[in-house]
Amino acid sequence: MDNFNSDKNTPNENHDAPIPFDDSDNDAGNTNVSHSPLHLDGSSSEMPKTEAAKPMGKKSTGEIASSDRITGVRTFFTKLHVGAIDFLDNQITNWLNDNPGIIIKRTNTATGNVTGKKVEPSIIVTVWY
Known about the structure:
Helix content is 13%, strand content 21%. It is an alpha+beta fold. A hairpin with a 3-residue loop joins strand 2 and strand 3.
């Protein structure tokens, strides 16, 4: 920027004129640039040809989940430590054993803080049936 407002700028120059193209490289075929593939590992062998991946078979059209409507939801939560998580497993198992007609449609788990007497990190399991 040392020549921004210097006397080197000629007053007759048209600063709005387009910059001319450099036509010195019109002979693109005469360049010394190689267009062959690079072999960076020093070997002269070519890469083995690999076939394109074949499409997978048709997906099964059977139901993945029950198409019945969701009729209820049950939420279980416990503190995030080993003994409490074992207790949560027992709670869910006992609830399912006590209600054999329940078909689980969807489940979700989340972790977060539950506020009771004090705020503790917990795991929350939601079961839609």
